[in-house]
């Protein structure tokens, strides 16, 4: 096994009375990431921090009631041990305590936790851990402490939850999944469940692959997949569908080439969208914000502009233009009340799908502080390039075209 590079590896400590329960962390992608030195996982036995013959970790609850409570002393010693181990800098982990009474573990939380350099997991058993351990960890040890639940059901202890959390977080650590693009289109990444997938053979047991997937029409495939995602989410997880999402689900969004008749509405939509960008980036010096009605009208002649309409309302737009073998995707915007629901992604896919032969890269610009845009573009496979800012405060992102 490669010795983890402390500057690079994410450190994960797990304390449990059943260390063997964590053995699956040696397997598969997480095991490989450990071997490759990307994850530095250490499992500790809570009973090693007891001092009696029976290695006791629990006792009866004050105030009565069913079950047993985990004693504070072994936990405090175990945490001291974890903090002292290979930690000359005195850094502090984020302490995660799995429990059914915690905040829900979601993909968004997994993403947040994947940014942390060090996580420590305290696996409770029985009725849970003495409350003073949490206070001690926060107040004396200076740890951020989060109680996190896998779901609304009760497990026998935190170990299964830790296995799930380490897998969900670990696979988001750069380098753990070989092909980062496979992280891009996944259930929960943008609030919708994933579309159905098929592989060869084309007909199996009398069942055909949906015709659209064989069409080679990338725009049609993208539209079909979004429809499937919305339908699936509505059927299986209606709770995920925001009111506006539902309205988008109920009414088809149509993307069409912009015409001069679209210009006044498009101008209003752009203003609304780029005022948001101006606020996010703390500048009014954004060309898109300053385009006049005449500029927008003129742009229809110099670029290919697409508009998205839902029940007649203009809800999004994008422009494309060719620069040698690069397809520049500009002015991508979605009505503020409908953002975060996959429409920007759909416009982006549409813009990409309309690129002619000979295009090798897609490129676009956004504000350096436009966090939502950056997240969406990165999820769609775009990477920041180290190029001079196209305008002050903006960045360039590029993606290679896959054919
Ligand atoms: N421990 C017991 N039940 C749990 C749950 N639902 N999530 C996380 N940890 C747990």
Folded structure, characterized:
By secondary structure, the chain is of the alpha/beta class. The protein has 2 domains: 10-178, Alpha/beta knot (3-Layer(aba) Sandwich); 252-400, Gcn5-related N-acetyltransferase (GNAT) (Aminopeptidase, 3-Layer(aba) Sandwich). Helix content is 32%, strand content 23%. It contains 12 helices and 16 strands. The chain has helices spanning 28-35, 72-84, 107-114, 131-139, 159-170, 218-236, 243-250, 263-281, 287-290, 293-302, 343-353, 371-379, and strands at residues 10-16, 39-45, 58-59, 69-70, 94-104, 118-122, 144-149, 203-204, 207-208, 253-257, 304-310, 313-323, 326-334, 361-367, 383-384, 394-400. It has a 7-stranded mixed β-sheet, with helices on both faces. A 5-stranded parallel β-sheet has the order 2-1-6-5-7, with helices on both faces. The chain has a two-stranded antiparallel sheet with strand order 3-4. Strand 1, helix 1 (28-35) and strand 2 (39-45) form a beta-alpha-beta unit. Helix 2 runs parallel beside helix 4 and helix 6 packs antiparallel against helix 11 (343-353). The two termini are 38 Å apart. The relative contact order is 0.09. The mean pLDDT is 91. Residues 98-100, 149-151, 153-155, 157-158, 161 line the site of adenine.
